[in-house]
Amino acid sequence: MQNDTRRDLLVGVADALGFVLGALAGWGLGRLLGFDFVGTPGYGGAQMIGLVFIVLGCGLGKWLARTLAQTFTRDRP
Question: What keywords were assigned to this record (predicted)?
Fold first, then answer.
């Protein structure tokens, strides 16, 4: 039971960190390419593209963090 709780905690923390860090990476990439969603007023095309970068960063960051967490939580013989 203890190992299940530890594994679940690790996966949950990895999900949260991957989500937030992925969003920040997506936002940074969007800003670098000129599509700033956060720092510009209005909801034009550039802002929507910036939002897409943030959302994709969230998803990719969570996927990567979950994949890495699963490699650390596999039962080893």
Answer: Membrane, Transmembrane, Transmembrane helix
Please give the residue range of the domain that contains residue 26: 12-71
Residue closest to 53 by CA, chosen among 71, 72, 33: 33
Q: How many Cβ atoms sit within 10 Å of the Cβ of residue 8?
A: 11
Q: What is the pLDDT of residue 1?
A: 55
Q: What are phi and psi of 75, to 5 degrees?
A: -75, 130
Residue 67 is assigned to a structural domain of this protein: yes
Look up tokens 């490699």; give the residue.
71
The 10s digit of each residue's pLDDT in 29-61 is 999 999 989 888 888 989 999 999 999 999 999
* pTM of the entire predicted model: 0.82
